[in-house]
Every structure is written in structure tokens, then in C-alpha cells.
Amino acid sequence: MNRNDVTEKIIATKVSKGIQWADVARKVGLSKEWTTAACLGQMTLNNEQAKVLGEIFGLSEEEQKWLQVVPYKGSLPTQVPSDPLIYRWYEIVNVYGTTIKELIHEEFGDGIMSAIDFSMDITREPDPKGDRVSVVLSGKFLPYKSY
User: Does the pTM exceed 0.90?
Assistant: First the structure.
């Protein structure tokens, strides 16, 4: 057994029981974005959070322990993703990445936006021309230091 086996069991149970990620997140007590990432094997859960997921997805004690192991982060199987939705994010970074970098450096200086001290919010925006996806990313600015 490994972390991938537990992730596959979570996904299979979600599908078979018709579970929604937002409902899982409410029970865990964290955002649907972070909770979904954790269920998909990208975050480390504490014992209490793992027990909640254990109850929801019927996980054994051993499987719950795997949820508490620091994962190898990065879930894409190829350099350029082939899934159309994920590819569009790749496209956004290809087209706007240098603009984002330029504007962050102009506003904040030389540094990076943290993906550790980070939050994300995904919501639906109703629109008569077709609903829109709103994604807000918020990361702490970490300046490079001189030494």
C-alpha cells in the first residue's frame, strides 16, 4: 500500500457514493480547495483530519496514516499537461507568466509569491453569456535577501 492507493480509494468512494468535495471540506473544517488537494494526495493531513476522511471514505487506520505522510508534490504526469482544463492553466502561465512576474516585481520587488503561505478560492460567477470561473490566488510575498 502507498499514498497513491489511498488517493485512488478516496476517488473511487467519492464517485460511488456521489460525495461532493465541498461537503468533505465542511466536515474537515477547511477550504474545499485545500481539502480537495489533500484528498488528491498533495497535502499532509494531521491525525484529526485523517480520521474525518477515514469516516467519510471508509479508510482503515493504516490508510489514514498514509494521509499523514508528507507527499511528493506535483501531480501532473507530463511536462505539458494534456487534460484540456489543466492545459489552459499551462497556457495562462505561458501567455501571462512574464506579465505576472513583471507586475509582482514592480509592486513588491525581487522575490516570489509563496505557494506554501497560500490560499485559493474557486467560485462560480453567474453571467447571462455563460457562467464564469473565478479563481483567486493569494500568496505571501517572499523577498530574496542579500547576504
Answer: no
Q: Looking at 55, 60, 82, 91, which residue is catalytic?
A: 91
- The answer to whether residue 91 is catalytic is yes
> What are the extents of the domains in the chain?
3-66, 84-143
Q: What are phi and psi of 118, to 5 degrees?
A: -150, 150
Q: CA-to-CA distance for 145 and 147, rounded, in angstroms?
A: 6
Chain position carrying cell 493569494:
138
Q: Are 3 and 69 in contact (CB under 8 A)?
A: yes
Q: How big is the CA angle at 105 (ends 99 and 109), to the nearest 5 degrees?
A: 180
95 pLDDT more than 90: no
- Specify the CATH architecture of the domain 84-143: 2-Layer Sandwich (3.30)
State how far the Cα of 28 lies from the Cα of 45, in Å rounded to an integer: 10
Report the mean per-residue pLDDT for the chain.
94
CATH class of the domain comprising 3-66: mainly alpha
Of the residues 88, 132, 134, 138, only one is catalytic, namely 88
26 catalytic per annotation: no
Convert the pLDDT of each residue in 71-93 to its tens digit.
888 777 778 888 899 999 999 99
